[in-house]
Design goal:
Blueprint: E1 2-10, H1 15-28, E2 32-39, E3 47-55, E4 67-72, H2 75-81, E5 85-93, E6 108-111, H3 114-120, H4 127-138, H5 144-154, H6 163-176, E7 178-180, H7 182-187
């Protein structure tokens, strides 16, 4: 099994940490892992993306042009990465701020209203964990207990008291991800 993932959005949305948690989760499962971030000098507010590869075999290169899965959190990333998903692949996105919804018919498209759900919970900082939960519902490539271990590795110890909240956010994303059918995509305009 090899899963090649791009996670892309604005800096400050937790894009890089979501990728890091996935990478640590893969390590916990004795997988080969690559985590390659990319962000501009703007950091918060600028675009950021991270490529994560999880594999049972050696990874030949961390550099990819096409992906099995894309997690898209802003319009600029949708414009850049929608076409980079392999046919039959998965695209998950938060519709907040998306004006041009995905139009491809040869991929599986899912929507998660992470921004709305995190706002309703009263904590925008859980946004990325809601999104991660949606992804793991669609593509259960790592076990949930390994995601919790990944959280422990990536969060400084002083924030470990937030792990139950993050677990709750992951569950929220798993419960609220929606499959979009071809007809749905064209009715979103």
């Amino acid at each position: 099994m090899t899963e090649e993932i791009i996670i892309a959005g604005f800096g400050g949305q937790g894009v890089l940490s979501m990728g890091k948690i996935l990478a640590y989760s893969g390590i916990m499962q004795d997988q080969e892992v690559s985590w390659m971030p990319s962000y501009g000098p703007e950091m918060r507010g600028g675009t950021a993306n991270v490529t994560v590869i999880l594999s049972d075999d050696r990874i030949s290169s961390p550099y990819l042009k096409i992906f099995d899965s894309a997690i898209i959190l802003n319009q600029q990333s949708m414009d850049k990465f929608e076409e980079a998903v392999k046919p039959g692949g998965v695209l998950i996105y938060d519709p907040n701020g998306i004006t041009d919804h995905p139009k491809r018919t040869d991929i599986n498209i899912f929507q998660i209203e992470g921004n709305r759900l995190a706002t309703e919970k009263g904590n925008l900082k859980i946004f990325n964990m809601v999104i991660l939960g949606a992804f793991l519902k669609v593509k259960p490539i790592v076990k949930l207990e390994n995601v919790i271990e990944g959280l422990k590795k990536s969060l400084p110890e002083r924030y470990h008291h937030l792990i139950p909240l993050n677990k709750e956010a992951i569950d929220l994303g798993m419960e609220n991800v929606k499959t979009l059918k071809f007809e749905d995509v064209f009715n979103l305009k």
